[in-house]
Amino acid sequence: MARSKDLAKYEFKKQLEELRNVKGRATELISLYVPPSRRISDVTNYLKNEYAQSSNIKSRTTRKNVMWAIESITGRLKTFKEVPENGLVFLVGHKSGGGDMTVPVSHVIEPPEPISTFMYRCDSRFYLDQLEDMLAEKEVYGLIVIDRGEATLGTLNGKRIDVLKNIESRIMGKHRQGGQSAQRFERLIEIAAHEYYKKVGDLANEVFLGEEGLKGVLIGGPGATKDTFAEKDYLHHELKKMIVGTFDTGYTDESGLRELMENASKTLDDLSIVKEKTLMKRFFEELRKPDGGLSCYGENEVRTALERGAVDMLLISEGLSKLRIAFTCDDCGESGSLTVAVDKTLKCPKCGSEPDIDSEQDIVNEMFDVADSYGTSIEMISMDSEEGEMLMKAFGGLAAILRYRMGDT
Q1: 77 CB-side CA count, 13 A
Q2: How far apart are CA 286 and CA 146, in angstroms?
Q3: Rounded to the nearest 10 degrees, how much is the dihedral formed by the CA atoms of 241, 246, 252, 254?
Q4: Would you state the pLDDT for residue 133?
Q5: Yes or no: is domain 17-133 CATH 3.30.470.20?
Q6: Quick check: 330 and 355 in contact, CB under 8 A?
Q7: Residues 247-273: what's their mean pLDDT?
Q8: CATH class as words, domain 140-173+192-271
Q9: Whether pLDDT at 386 is above 80
Q10: Could you state, in order of their start, the residue ranges of all structural domains in the chain?
Q11: Contact 402, 315 (CB under 8 A)
Q12: What dotted CATH number matches 295-408?
């Protein structure tokens, strides 16, 4: 259904944006990354040592705030019997609150992917690099680097390369003698090459066809061998349709897989935007029709279409940052719901005073909720392309491709 990993990614991204803006007055913000392999008792003992060390901090205020943060983390650790399967991240301390004031902040995050290394850092900002890396697209690609001497197979998952298999060909070298003997020897070499390519293809079929979420296959290597392998029918037809391209690499071992990833990176970046461009192109094609076709845009129109079940595909910009607020005004009795930018103060539309807020929700979450109930597909559109930027700037960050024209019902 529409409530998918896109929404989880959006919420995680918003949380990191808020944390990125947190600034401590001094080195009063603690970032603690705990991998799933660490025992709770080991972490507690580590913090005891840091607590003892913090007593040497010269500034009384900084010393007090750091010790408070360590005590807070230690207390939260006691609520866990063991570290969750993806690890834990504690972001705790005091942020600047204006003037000499500081405000305590405390976040405990169970990350969407495993934490790789234990890390403790005390600084004026939270350390977020590991978490931000998890926001990167994690599409899986099959990797093959091949020449006539060997082949290596692996997978690319986000930025991580997993080596799966390495095969040596045992193809004999070129025969230097002439005549019929040489021709026969050449035929034997080509037969051996064919068997070797077939073995590589069979192995690739075995490991890649069962790979969940496989988006494509990248083939690399020096010379023409990679092209020969890609063009002929050594791969299963489903995998062959998924070949993204062939790329030159100097090696065909594990380092060749890394080289393949680097050389194909621009192509993969372009591919990630192609889907978004295709959807936006479809929207623009409808929009250009004299009657507006099966399109609508802007919050009010899109909201109406959603509530009527008319939306087939909802397009939401990743740059959209607004709240949907239900309010009641004590001054004039007005009540209702309004959408405001995150950094704006809500004013009563009738009398201009600040009303009481009954509830508030991120507009993206709200749109997902409504879309869910009607089986509407949703795509989050980045601002990395011209079309994605236009969705935000020209159409308010919300657009839709409709199932039917609302005027026809």
Answers
A1: 25
A2: 45
A3: -70
A4: 82
A5: no
A6: yes
A7: 88
A8: alpha beta
A9: yes
A10: 17-133, 140-173+192-271, 295-408
A11: no
A12: 3.30.1330.30
Q: Given pLDDT bands bounded at 50, 70 and 90, which one contains residue 163?
A: very high
What are the Cα distances from residue 252, in Å, to 171, 206, 313, 332?
A: 15, 20, 43, 75
Q: Per residue in 294-326, pLDDT tens?
A: 999 999 999 999 999 999 999 999 889 899 999
- Separation CA 13–CA 119 (nearest Å): 21
The predicted-structure confidence for 212-251, as pLDDT tens digits, reads as follows 779 899 999 999 999 999 999 999 999 999 999 999 999 9
Reported confidence tier of residue 179, pLDDT bands at 50, 70, 90:
low
Two structure tokens written together for 401: 């491709």
Q: What is the pLDDT of residues 81-128, one digit of tens each?
A: 999 999 999 999 999 887 778 899 999 999 988 998 999 999 999 999
Question: ∠ CA(347), CA(350), CA(355), 5° rounding?
Answer: 40
Start-to-end C-alpha separation, the chain: 25
Residue type, 405: R
Query: At which residue do the structure tokens 């697209």 appear?
Result: 137
Q: Which pair of structure tokens corresponds to residue 31?
A: 């970032």
Residue 369 tokens, joined: 């909720």
Q: Report residue 332 as tokens.
A: 């004039």
Residues near 314 by Cβ (< 8 Å), separated by ≥ 6? 2, 302, 306, 367, 371, 376, 377, 378, 379, 398, 400
